[in-house]
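Do me a favour: review this protein, sequence plus structure tokens, and tell me how the chain folds. Record follows.
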Amino acid sequence: MSEDDLLSQEEKDALIKGVESGDVDTDQTDIGSSEARAFNFASRELRLLDSLPRLQTVSELFVEASSDAIGKMFRADPAIEPNPLTTRAQQDFIESLSSLCHVAVCTMSPLEGRWILALETRLLYILVDRYFGGKGLAPSANRNKQFTPIEQRLARQVTDLLLTELALAFEDVAVLEPAIESIEENPEHLTLPVSHEPVIQLSLNIGFVEDAGLCHIVLPYAMFETIKDKLNLASETKAPKYNDEWQPKIRQGLRQANLKVTAELDELNLTLRQILDLVPGDVLPIKSPDNVTVKAEGEVLFFGKFGTTEGHNAVKITQSVFE
């Protein structure tokens, strides 16, 4: 506090005189309870996400589809762990990115506004290593101050792939056309207007077995204004997706599976005493069966007749249970 902020001696004397004479009111004002009250700073965030419940379903579909698409591209099953949907200020997100990061500024026609799809450096190094036959490991430290042409090209391919899957995830809500407007490697050079309006962030940990890196999808809340009613509807039951590529492999595997097949010739009913009295050398009489039950792994499948062929006991199939 500077000396100019202090009262002069004359002002102090006048204040004391006013208090003594009653001209200055010194009664305490009731300010209510002095107890601290809890305030949930995340309440607005929760309200924003609660107003778009179907967005959670869209994100789940996107994660599932992206996992399949990345697996095909890199010829290996990726491990993708989505973080919970969150909201934050756009500028806060941009400032959280490292100085080297593949940031695609995108549009989503017909929705208005621009949004971000960012691949962090570690993730891009992992993808490059896996793409060229490695295990998918990132170096312990960033190697360059900018991405190589190969890294840039692969980052663009992965970004295009994710845009395609994002459009498919939204198809039950609206027909959208995500597209890249520009790409930056230094977040400080982004031309987005500084905004403290909330954005919805979906972050994915993507990797292969031993290592993982982050991918971020950041969409302004205001972008969904025109389809807000559709995103506020309860999620519709979506038919499960089938991968036709696996059907021939599964069918072939089932046909080559080994099963235990048994043929029951006859059944005998014995008392417990008779069973306990059995000793080696005893003979159990069996009638020549007219019908033989053929089972696979204990399940009845066929009926047949007992006989011989080429000197071996055999069963001739006469009927199937499926007939």
Notes: The longest strand covers residues 198-208. The first helix runs from residue 9 to 21. The chain has two domains: 43-234, 257-320. Residues 1-5, 39-43 have pLDDT under 50 and may be disordered.
